[in-house]
Amino acid sequence: MPELPEVETIARSLRNSTQREFTAADTMQTRPGIIGRRIRDGHVQWPRTIAAPSVPVFLSRIKHQTVEEVTRRGKFLVLRLTNNVLLIHLRMSGDIRVELDRPDTVQKHDRVKLAFTDGARLVFNDPRKFGRIWLEEDPQRILGGLGPEPFSDELTPEYFLKMLNRRKRIVKTLLMDQSFIAGLGNIYSDEALHLAHIHPLQQTSRLNPDQSSRLLDSIRLVLLDGIRRNGASIDWVYRGGEFQNYFNVYQRTGKPCSTCGEPIQRIVVGQRGTHFCPRCQSMT
């Protein structure tokens, strides 16, 4: 599932003057973003992709609205339109592409397509069909339950410690809880815990101020590094990132820890494969 760095990379590409595109030959090209483009109409190939409103209402409302802003909240893409806000959650396998100066054809797994008045198209492609799109007047109806952004100024070390200590949870599962902190998933949780030298099974209520501060710093550092490297490309769904070349623990079972040389171990935490160094991340 794309996490904060991957979603941020897509958001930046959609709002910037140029964005990356990989052709069938995997050669990088550039194309315009979508801010300022006016939607002519929409086409829905898989109705369940539209979470709200109903498909007929969605198609009626989306017409003639202009994309004014593209941002991100947690793992959600947020497209502010003239009258509404379009929210896109990529889930397990969703991806976004912009088509320009090419025939309007439907590719396999295309679920929703927005056609702009200038001929460009925004396409949501989702092989596993888990991704969802909302067209909302008030985006807080969907986003209101999310925890703070990792880079929020309100997320001070003192406040983060309180957030951790008042919950009796395993730290790995809590970091992936979007109501606790928005944007982290399996990859960046593993990498942040390794950088902070905290075992993934550590109880959050037992973390001390030094551990909490290290963890917050580590979360921000690995996310910034992921964003700088355009996210991680670990399968056929999301391409273009290179953070996978800099993993310290994720998917490195049996390989030596980059810090101490101890073989990386893999356990299952909250039904998710979890990678850690048993020496650097010993239980306290």
Description:
There is one protein chain. This protein is α+β, with helices and mostly antiparallel strands. The chain folds into two domains: 4-143, MutM-like, N-terminal (N-terminal domain of MutM-like DNA repair proteins); 157-276, Helicase, Ruva Protein, domain 3 (Orthogonal Bundle), CATH 1.10.8.50. Helices cover 24% and strands 23% of the residues. It has seven helices and 13 strands. The chain has helices at residues 4-15, 55-62, 140-143, 157-165, 171-175, 186-196, 209-228; strands spanning 19-22, 28-31, 39-44, 50-52, 69-73, 76-80, 85-89, 95-99, 110-116, 121-125, 132-136, 265-269, 272-276. The strands form four sheets. A five-stranded mixed β-sheet has the order 4-11-7-6-5. The chain starts with a helix and ends in an 8-residue tail after the last strand.
Q: Percent of residues in beta strands?
A: 15-25%
The number of distinct β-strands equals 13
C-alpha Rg (nearest Å): 20 Å
Oligomeric category: single chain
CATH class of the largest domain: Alpha Beta
- H/E series: HEEEEHEEEEEEEHHHHHEE
- Please give the largest β-sheet: 5 strands, mixed
Shape: elongated
- By CATH, the superfamily of the largest domain comes out as MutM-like, N-terminal
CATH architecture classification name of the largest domain: Alpha-Beta Barrel
Q: What structural class should be given to the helix and strand makeup?
A: alpha+beta
Strand order of the largest sheet: 4-11-7-6-5
Task: Kindly identify the CATH topology of the largest domain.
Answer: N-terminal domain of MutM-like DNA repair proteins
Helix content: 10-25%
Count of discrete structural domains: 2
Q: Are there runs of 5+ residues with pLDDT below 50, and where?
A: 18-31
The count of helical stretches stands at 7
The overall average pLDDT, rounded, is 91
- How far the N terminus sits from the C terminus, by CA atoms, comes to 31 Å
